[in-house]
Amino acid sequence: MRFLYINVPRVVLIVIISFFFIISGRSYFTFAQPEHNAEFSLMNLKASISESAALSSDLIEEVQEISALYEHYVISTALQSMRVIERVKEVPDVNTATNDMAAFPSAEHSLYPHYLTKRYSQFKYTVDCDGIVDIDTTSPTTVCHLAQLEDCLNSIE
């Protein structure tokens, strides 16, 4: 019995110190009751989508922004690689934004098919004589039109 008496205060002290570190470290935990009777119905789906239409719209915008950043990086890297490999010192100015990579930055020195696998990009690009690529995100040319998807989500409301 003495064995329990000596270790119980030690265990209590360890638990108290552990809770102190959890709370001071801004870690949180909750006790939740799991739902065992989860069911799927189209009415529940429609209700959850209509409640989160604004969230869906924000999500679409964020996905589009991330996609634009990634594609801009790929196009810029491909252009710089083409300049090094083909020894292109001056890049012709492209003032009209285009998504046709077979003509970007010029027909003579194009990124498609040697540096990019797709001819048409999702966004349109311009480039200056220093090789700085600029992206035009105002009109994406996506295969899956995000505006139509957003309209569809809003019509469910």
List the helices and strands and how they pair.
Layout: H1 2-24, H2 42-51, H3 53-85, E1 94-100, E2 120-127, E3 133-136, H4 146-155
Antiparallel strand pairs: 1-2, 2-3
Helix pairs in contact: 3-4
Gist?
With 157 residues, the protein is α+β, with helices and mostly antiparallel strands.
Keywords:
single chain, 157 residues, alpha+beta, three-stranded antiparallel sheet, 4 helices
Descriptive report:
This protein has helices spanning 2-24, 42-51, 53-85, 146-155, and strands at 94-100, 120-127, 133-136. It has 157 residues and is an alpha+beta fold. Strand 2 and strand 3 (133-136) form a beta hairpin. Helix 3 (53-85) packs antiparallel against helix 4 (146-155). The longest helix has 33 residues, at 53-85. Residues 1-6 have low confidence and may be disordered.
Q: Quote the beta fraction.
A: 5-15%
* Major beta sheet, strand line-up: 1-2-3
The helical percent reads 40-55%
Q: How many helices in DSSP terms? A: 4
**Rounded radius of gyration (Å):** 28 Å
| SS-derived structural category | alpha+beta
* Outline: elongated
Q: What is the helix/strand order?
A: HHHEEEH
- Ranges where pLDDT stays below 50 over 5 or more residues in a row are 1-6
Please provide the count of β strands. 3
Distance between the termini: 67 Å
Give the biggest sheet: 3 strands, antiparallel
Oligomer: single chain
Mean pLDDT: 75
